[in-house]
Design goal:
The complex is a heterotrimer of chains A (about 300), B (about 500) and C (about 290). With about 300 residues, chain A is of the alpha/beta class. Chain A contains 13 helices and 8 strands. Chain A has a single domain, classed as TIM Barrel, CATH 3.20.20. In chain A, helix 1 packs across helix 10, helix 2 packs across helix 11 and helix 5 packs parallel to helix 7. Chain A is globular. The termini of chain A are far apart. Chain B is globular, with a radius of gyration of 23 Å. Chain B is of the alpha/beta class and about 500 residues long. In chain B, the strands form 4 sheets. A 7-stranded mixed beta sheet of chain B has the order 13-14-15-12-11-16-17, sandwiched between helices. The termini of chain B are far apart. In chain C, a hairpin with a 5-residue loop joins strand 4 and strand 5. The longest helix of chain C is centred in the middle third of the chain and has 21 residues. Classes of the chains: A alpha/beta (about 300), B alpha/beta (about 500), C alpha/beta (about 290). The interface between A and B is large, with 51 and 41 residues.
Chain lengths: ~300, ~500, ~290
């Protein structure tokens, strides 16, 4: 609408985003929402100190998020997300479980390496068995108006990915304004769709690396959802959305689900099209799930077994 | 590959993820019968007549309300007159402290009052809790602070209260309208006889209880309940030195005629048919939200509702499609459910009126768009959110105030055409302008015949922000510095 | 043989032109000794309608002129009044005022016009304000012109009240229709002549002379009239006016001033008098990047 540009009013955007947090999610809807959120998790660890041992433990959590048995099935998470070097460990741990192996690439988190090096890293991650690649864009190029450069790098990574699913991290916290975030989302979706028939869920737009604050705020996620919805209205293609960074509590995750439901509809309430990138969130989701089923709160040591 | 991940059948039922009922469980104490609040006490009406107040969402009786007769209104006026001199002489600072106390009590009782408002009037608890009650408290806080500063509010003047004020309020924001009326009057040293709307008396009467609790001097505020006749007695009572009315233009006109032979200052806040103008260069997502809150806030029972949508022709089609999608997300139903967006229509009379106007719109050839995802409750009064396209400016739905969740969509090609269409109405309460271009906002805002212009926003209210209309939407302002004007001489 | 005096015919000033009453009716203006001073057009219902239409047509140009320009036009009017002091004084004396009182009223009137001229580009700063609301919004309230204002001028003080009411209405950006009673008709004509040479755009001010009574209903009932300000009307006239105004929910203000009040600058040039000639508009805009 109104040509290619989609201006955004920051205040009214924030107001709308906040309205989703006023929804009251209780009883059955809370329980199924928590499980849905678990199934959408990209359980993530992206630290210099990550070790194979820690990553193996994380993979066990991914497969069996709830350490105690409940009277309801608790789904596994969607994927485990690590640095490329740890992809083989994850791949091996998750073999046959249905949980996917995701790898950051392209000089995560800053993207400040020559394009060749970033592409080589992507190739290596795929070769090591990554099912999904989480790339970063050159925010500097975007902010200085070199949009073609951003489009080109997305397409170059896409070429390497082939059938491997691609999540493009905008790092919304560095884009500074809602106008930029929306524009960047449109740019990435457009670049990835050019001369290509994107399958539903083959492309995700993702808010953040988790290394920068603010990260996945409600308004920034809403902007991505709106960009994705407008693309769907125009093309019928479903792009995925992944908020990541700063989502630590179940309540925040449920707010995200409410926002997806009321912006994109039920169709997007699947790990194929919506993911939440987080690490400690799983503990709280499980804790809340235990509460809804047992009526009292679990201690952290009951749930955080990694 | 992706398909194998996270078995969603486990997490979400086949019909999708839906919100479970989230009922607000607080229940305020509701008396079986309420007297008139006169001279600081609840009194049985001399008329011995009472009427039912019902919950419009269920049709069930909540309580019985006293109908004030001429003698009752006389008694209320006498109480207000007796209390007047002392209240007027009281130091502004002390008067202000009563209002501060009242503001605090309102905050403390906010949940109960919100539930009561929702039960008596049908508005969603989300709105009474998040909009009405915070604004009620703010109005008392804001005006409390004016009580000892009036000499600076009216520089160069030694202002005095007018005396007994007769105030008549509507049913769409019952407690908030009471606060809008009472707070400036009391801050300026006036005493009041207030007449709430007959379908929504409860929160005003509970406010009276709070006034007792904070030891507001007897007679400073008196509340007489009843219907139109009681209102007429209040407005035309010889003791009244100032009349303030919020309601329909039709009744406002009658009050003007009735008061014509007298020198009684009058402020009127009446109807509207406000235009919401969306330009192609607007922030469209936010404009959609503005249109939604403009017409579907409080079931459209809002005098300043953006009930005429003017969209630039080049984006009309996608805008209407997006609006339709957004409308489908609105949740109509139990007002006490925290996830309800649109509650019950306030009364069967109002429901009849909305239905008649919508039928007229269809008969004139406008196209009704009405997305109803969930069935409406069987009891109570309900009308789904809807909008009309193919509307001509001469159509009834484009001219008459519907006071319901019904929007008339029209288009324009040039800014001049937008301005002309927006101003072609006898009303002049509010206007909305949506564009990303600064200079366009200022030019169009300054040319709107309206007392309130929301630019890139809509339906915002604040105690510090003067509200009121031009043309047949009334005169005088409520809120802010300008709102004090009517209550001093 | 003494020279035969040329007797003036006072006309109605409507839409920037001088015209006879559409009815053709006139009335005689006599001095205190009963001598005919002039004949003036007796405004009819139709004239009043013409005047309102002219004021409406003239509104955009006058309202949208810069406040500084409006101030300069009113100041120009004061200059022209000063240069015609003698005529105004004579007209007041003809109407029965003694010379010192007449001089004083003319001086006060000129000064009043100067004072009002100076308000044009300042009143917004006194009556307007920024409002601190709960939330990230710029919110401000600005006074704007109401539109067409009809002023019913009292008999006393004839010139000062007329200048005050017309100057206040015009100064706030309204266009004005002034109904001037018979007793002040020549002063009205003189003031019209002053305004006519003061760069007042056509329709910004319109003057009707004659009997106020028959004009109450047509002026009051005309839905293009936004505000009616009266002074010196009888109770029944005020009732008539307010009844007429109820159609269209239009504003009626009554100025209850005595002669002393009209002479008192602290009242007549107070913002709390001028605010009867403005409408307040509150604007909201989000503030964010």
């Amino acid at each position: 609408m109104g040509g290619d540009r989609h201006p955004v009013d920051a205040v009214m955007l924030a107001r709308r985003a906040a309205s989703f947090t006023r929804r009251s999610i209780k009883s059955d809807s809370k329980q199924s929402g928590l499980r849905l959120a678990i199934s959408m998790l990209d359980l993530t660890t992206l630290e210099g100190a990550d070790s194979p041992e820690l990553v193996r433990a994380l993979c066990q959590r991914a497969i069996h998020p709830c350490p105690v048995s409940l009277d309801m099935p608790v789904p596994p998470v969607a994927a485990v997300c690590v640095y490329p070097k740890l992809v083989p460990v994850v791949r091996e741990s998750l073999l046959g479980t249905g949980v996917l192996t995701a790898s950051v690439a392209t000089s995560f988190p800053s993207g400040q390496s020559p394009l060749d090096a970033r592409l080589a890293e992507t190739e290596a991650a795929i070769a090591a068995g990554a099912d999904e690649i989480d790339m970063v864009i050159s925010r500097g190029a975007f902010l200085s108006g070199r949009f073609d450069e951003v489009a080109a790098e997305v397409r170059a990574v896409q070429d390497i990915c082939g059938q491997t699913h691609l999540k493009v991290i905008l790092e919304t916290g560095e884009l500074a304004t809602p106008d930029n975030i929306r524009r960047c989302a449109d740019l990435v979706i457009e670049a990835a769709s050019r001369e290509r028939d994107l399958a539903d869920g083959a492309l995700f737009v993702k808010t953040s690396t988790g290394k920068i604050s603010p990260a996945a705020t409600m308004p920034s996620v809403l902007l991505l959802l709106e960009a994705v919805r407008d693309h769907f209205r125009g093309t019928g293609v479903r792009v995925g959305v992944k908020p990541a960074g700063g989502i630590r509590k179940s309540k925040a995750a449920l707010h995200m689900l409410v926002m997806v439901r009321e912006t994109l509809g039920q169709d997007w309430l699947t790990p194929k099209l919506f993911r939440i990138g987080a690490s400690s969130l799983l503990d709280d989701l499980v804790r809340q799930l235990l509460w809804t089923s047992r009526g009292h709160y679990a201690a952290m040591h009951d749930v955080a077994v990694t | 590959m992706m398909g194998q991940s996270g078995d969603t059948a486990v997490a979400v039922p086949s019909e999708g993820w839906n919100y479970s009922p989230a009922p607000e469980r607080t229940r305020p104490e509701i008396d079986s019968e309420y007297g008139l609040f006169i001279g600081g006490e609840f009194q049985a009406p001399q008329s011995d007549r009472t009427f039912n107040t019902i919950n419009p969402a269920t049709g069930q009786r909540l309580s019985r309300i006293s109908e004030a007769s001429e003698e009752d209104v006389d008694a209320a006026m006498a109480a207000a007159r007796v209390a007047g001199p002392k209240w007027a002489r009281m130091k502004g600072r002390e008067r202000g402290k009563y209002l501060f106390r009242l503001a605090r009590r309102v905050q403390e009782c906010a949940r109960e009052l919100a539930v009561l408002e929702t039960m008596d009037g049908g508005k969603p608890i989300k709105e009474s809790r998040d909009v009405d009650l915070p604004l009620v408290a703010q109005h008392f806080f804001y005006h409390a602070g004016w009580a000892d500063k009036l000499q600076w509010a009216f520089g160069g003047r030694d202002v005095k209260p007018r005396g007994v004020c007769g105030q008549i309020i509507p049913w769409n924001f019952p407690l908030l309208m009471a606060a809008w009326k009472l707070a400036p009057a009391l801050a300026c040293g006036n005493t009041v006889v207030l007449k709430p709307a007959e379908t929504t008396s409860l929160t005003a009467l509970h406010l009276a209880k709070l006034m007792q609790e904070i030891d507001l001097p007897p007679g400073v505020v008196n509340i007489v309940t009843g219907a139109g006749d009681t209102g007429r007695m209040v407005a035309s009572h010889p003791a009244v030195k100032k009349v303030a009315f919020t309601g329909s233009t039709e009744v406002g006109r009658r009050i003007m005629e009735e008061l014509a032979p007298r020198e009684v200052p009058l402020t009127l806040e009446l109807g509207g048919k406000s235009a919401n103008i969306v330009f192609a260069d607007a922030a469209i997502e936010q404009a959609i939200e503005g249109v939604v809150s403009g017409i579907w806030f409080n079931q459209g029972h809002v005098c300043c509702a953006g009930s005429r949508l003017l969209v630039e022709e080049s984006i009309l089609e996608p805008f209407v499609a997006a609006l339709r999608d957004r409308m489908a997300q609105l949740r109509v139903g139990d007002p006490l459910d925290k996830n309800t967006d649109i509650g019950a229509i306030n009364s069967s009379e109002q429901l009849d009126r909305i239905r008649a106007l919508v039928t007229a719109g269809q008969e004139e050839g406008a196209i009704l768009h009405d997305v109803q995802s969930t069935p409406l409750p069987e009891q109570g009064f309900w009308f789904p959110p809807c909008f009309f396209t193919g509307v001509q400016p001469a159509h009834v739905v484009a001219r008459e105030e519907i006071f319901g969740p019904v929007l008339a969509v029209m288009s324009f090609r040039t800014p001049e055409e937008a301005i002309r269409r927006a101003n072609t109405t006898p009303y002049g309460l509010a206007a909305g302008i949506w564009t990303d271009k600064g200079s366009k906002i200022f030019e169009i805002a300054s040319r709107m015949d309206a007392g309130v212009v929301w630019c890139n926003t809509y339906n915002q209210f604040d105690a510090a922000s003067p509200f009121g209309g031009v043309k047949e939407s009334g005169f005088g302002r409520e809120g802010g510095l300008q709102g004090l004007r009517a209550y001093v001489r | 043989m003494s020279r035969l005096e040329v007797i003036k015919t006072g006309k109605l000033w409507i839409g920037g032109t001088w015209s006879r009453s559409e009815s053709g009716a006139t009335f005689v203006v006599e001095d205190a000794k009963g001598q005919t001073v002039a004949r003036c057009a007796l405004a009819s219902r139709k004239d009043s309608r013409e005047a309102v239409e002219a004021a409406r047509a003239g509104l955009p140009a006058w309202r949208d002129a810069t406040a500084m320009l409006r101030g300069q036009v009113l100041y120009r009017a004061a200059e022209m009044m000063e240069s015609r002091c003698k005529e105004f004084t004579e007209a007041l004396c003809d109407a029965g005022m003694n010379l010192p009182a007449a001089r004083r009223e003319v001086e006060l009137s000129v000064d009043r016009m100067v004072m009002l001229a100076g308000w044009c580009d300042k009143i917004h700063q006194i009556l307007g304000c920024q409002n601190s609301v709960v939330g990230p919004y710029h919110n401000f309230t600005i006074p704007q012109a109401c539109g067409v204002v009809v002023v019913f001028c009292p008999e006393e003080p004839p010139l000062l009240s007329m200048v005050t009411l017309i100057g206040a209405a015009m100064g706030m950006g309204n266009t004005v229709v002034a109904a001037v009673p018979r007793s002040a008709a020549m002063l009205g004509v003189l003031l019209g002549e002053v305004l006519a040479v003061s760069d007042v755009p056509s329709g910004a001010a319109n003057l009707l002379t004659g009997d106020i009574g028959p004009l109450l209903d047509p002026l009051g009932g005309h839905r293009e009239v936004a505000v009616m300000v009266s002074s010196g009307l009888s109770k029944s006239a005020r009732t008539t006016l307010r009844l007429a105004a109820a159609d269209g929910i239009r504003r009626v203000h009554t100025i209850p001033w005595t002669d002393a009040d009209w002479a008192d600058d602290t009242q007549t040039c107070s913002p709390w008098f001028l605010d009867q000639f403005v409408e307040f508009k509150t604007m909201w805009h989000p503030a964010g990047v």
